[in-house]
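The passage that follows is intended for readers who have already worked through the single-chain material. We present the inputs for a multi-component assembly, then the predicted structure in tokenized form, and finally a short commentary. You are encouraged to pause after the input and sketch how you expect the pieces to fit together before reading on.
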Amino acid sequence: CPSDIISTVEFNHTGELLATGDKGGRVVIFQREPESKTEPFSQGEYNVYSTFQSHEPEFDYLKSLEIEEKINKIRWLPQQNAAHFLLSTNDKTIKLWKVSERDKRPEGYNLKDEEGRIKDISTVTSLQVPVLKPMDLMVEVSPRRVFANAHTYHVNSISVNSDYETYMSADDLRINLWHLDITDRSFNIVDIKPANMEDLTEVITAAEFHPHHCNLFVYSSSKGTLRLCDMREAALCDKHSKLFEEPEDPSARSFFSEIISSVSDVKFSHSGRYLLTRDYLTAKVWDLNMESKPLETYQVHDYLRSKLCSLYENDCIFDKFECAWNGSDSVIMTGAYNNFFRMFDRNTKRDVTLEASRESSKPRAVLKPRRVCAAGGKRRKDDISVDSLDFTKKILHTAWHPTENIIAIAATNNLYIFQDKLNSEMH
Amino acid sequence: ITTNMECAVDAQSLISISLMKIHNSRTQRGGIKLHKNLLVSYVLRNARQVYIKEKYAEIYRMQQYEEVRTVCNEIQELNPLDLDSEDADDEDQARAACCGDETSLCHRGAAQPAVHVRAPSTLLGCCPFEDSSKESEPCEYRSCCMEASPVSHFDPFSADNIRHCNKTTVLDLDTHVVTTVENGYLHQDCCCDALQGGQGAQSPAKKRKGEFGGCVSEAEDVSDFTAARKRAKREDCSYSNPDYTETSNISNLISIFGSGFSGLLSRQADLEQICSKQALAGLGAWTRAIVAF
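Having made your guess, compare it with the prediction:
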């Protein structure tokens, strides 16, 4: 069912909740079960907490365009009271949702009965004070804000500021700054639309606020560049503070050089010191203090370099893979094809390829590392040949728990949650 | 980007595939994806660059061959006591410099057999198969690829000339419009230039027989070319210098199918309809034009 395809995955700030959005506009929230002393193996499992319809398909009559209901991104707000808040966005509209629990209900009303029907007042002989009685847990979700009509192009990113008051939304050509309480106004802080659209050479592909400095944000472009902007410098941040760009290797030029250098995702490290970017074939770690080239480059699936032509024909070359840091910024993770995902340890320089599939992962079984070998190359048992890869099984969205070694992997319409039981603590 | 012949073939199919993607994106749910179409236009530009480079290289090879032939002919016919020999040399050189005929186009691998007789390849280079015995009149019509110079003074096929070649000629088989572009500007067809007063060559302008195709000399043909030239100038179609900047790459490619990015992002339903039709019309013409090239 195509509307079940998961389009975004995001842990909240404590890792207690995990939200997924899908192509059908639905959001499913999972909650981690508290550790149980009696059943040690059931500790920390995620179960469905709430499901709701976030966005519906819309039709823009003026432009004769259908607006997809697919959820492009979900971002949690830091928790400030008992309720949880998250932002979800499709191509055009961002919504703020309140997720709250109800586990008590008032009983003993004077004027209405248990079913809520108005009592016949003549039957009321005495007054009682209603009391709160426990009930089965109910999770209520309600839309608190709708931020609409601010984007002409397709929204690709949202990011909550560390000031907990503002957030930004980015489309192909513009980035807008919002106040969480104000829906009828937003400030445009980046605009790269050229005066003549025929002069267009690049678009914005992702944007994120710095985790600690509320005035700094970064955005990536289809040309493979990153721009760090400081909102204190100017109202319109068209001029960057820093430009991160790696010079192109002229000997590696091909028909598809521009496509494979387009950055599909950018993430600040938890420390705020590094940036992680993903383009079609690599993942790169950048030091905020070094603009000339990345600190580290990791080959995700370089064996695809000779297959770019067929990947262009079947549109796979346009797939946008996301990337993630672990809590201590020592390991990075990103998805690939054939339901494979990759992890790179920045310290040991070791990497592993794992598979998210029903067949290869029974509950509580240890994941077996996988290997892709070149066609016709020396093949070990269980290796997969490049030509046998299933390009319809792509892992575009992954998330890492903020403090523990728990990862969430979206494989088409299935969500896999893996935990490292031996090494629960991050190191 | 490698430029061997194999790549050029791939370039052609890449161009078709890319145009198809752009066309299909108009009907995709959720509206036109700006990012994807931008990336596809980069592939279009890259493929076109390779394709054109390969064609130039091929023409250069052909002209090199003809140069060798010319020299051999000169050596054979040279007779120091013959006062007319110099004229004969000029004739041969000039004839070699002449626009080739349509057979050469076919031999260069164009797929379409129904190429119009007034093929632009005639403007691009000589015909290696021309028999020197056919026509004794000197011809001063020269290849568009060469800088304008008097016939007798230089070897028209020197490498330097080829390197200075900065003109592109395309035939649109639908409209039979011949468009020549130099440094991004639409240019008069060379034949028209020659017919309209010559290029200062020593020999008077002479008419050529129609069997040679290409540079025709009848009055009505001249007016056809003039008309075509005027039409070409009016068309919103500009091909830029091979050493163009990135922005002109994208804009030129978009101009090709007649609607531009503004067409892709049209906000009115009816306008979008029109742009679709334009894009479709342009799409076919461009694809056919490439094949003829």
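Commentary: Helices of chain A lie at 257-261, 308-313. The mean pLDDT of chain A is 92. How closely did your sketch match?
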